[in-house]
Amino acid sequence: MAAPTKKKSVLFICLGNICRSTMAEGIFQHLVKTNGLTDQWEIDSAALGDWHNGVPPDDRTMRTLKKNGITGYKHLGRQIKKADFHDFDVIFGMDEDNMRVTTSRTLRRCTSSATELATIFSRIQTNFFHPDHRPDVKV
């Protein structure tokens, strides 16, 4: 019997974890679910600061997700922690400042290479966004 495969894991971060990182998490969860890959992924989001710990995503984030057919997303804001750098294969900052702060805190390099990450997203995009179905995102 083959050993169980470790899930791939991704963490999206921004300043407060109520807008951009939660939007990215919700969209990524939706893509993974749509492609039947839920059992292969661990997906989360976090903040650089602690201002919104325990707070749900901003109403505008939730409305935008809903307008684009993504419902049922739930999350309570949390701050990034030291263990995240070990626990997640890939950490995405929502802008350059987020990445600069995050990389200055990194204690261990992520295990996924840029090539592996590009391959993962290419597969998801290919399976989700068919040439004759490119959804418009309504903001």
What do these coordinates show?
The chain has helices at residues 20-34, 59-67, 84-87, 96-105, 114-128; strands spanning 8-14, 41-47, 90-93. The protein is of the alpha/beta class and 139 residues long. The protein has one domain: 3-Layer(aba) Sandwich (Rossmann fold). The protein has a three-stranded parallel beta sheet with strand order 2-1-3. Helix 1 links the parallel strand 1 (8-14) and strand 2.
Provide a concise account of the structure shown.
This protein is α/β, with parallel strands linked by helices and 139 residues long. It has helices at 20-34, 59-67, 84-87, 96-105, 114-128, and strands at 8-14, 41-47, 90-93.
Secondary structure elements and pairings:
Elements: E1 8-14, H1 20-34, E2 41-47, H2 59-67, H3 84-87, E3 90-93, H4 96-105, H5 114-128
Helix pairs in contact: 1-2
Provide a count of the helices: 5
* Average residue pLDDT: 79
Q: Tally the structural domains.
A: 1
- The CATH superfamily turns out to be Response regulator
Helix amount = 25-40%
Give the CA-based shape. globular
CATH topology: Rossmann fold
The CATH architecture can be given as 3-Layer(aba) Sandwich
The whole-angstrom Rg is 15 Å
Number of strands: 3
How far the N terminus sits from the C terminus, by CA atoms, comes to: 48 Å
SS-based class: alpha/beta
Q: State the order of secondary-structure elements, H for helix, E for strand.
A: EHEHHEHH
Q: Please identify the top-level CATH class.
A: Alpha Beta
Low-confidence stretches: 107-114, 126-139
Tell me about the largest β-sheet: 3 strands, parallel
Fraction of residues in β-strands: 5-15%
State the strand order across the main sheet. 2-1-3
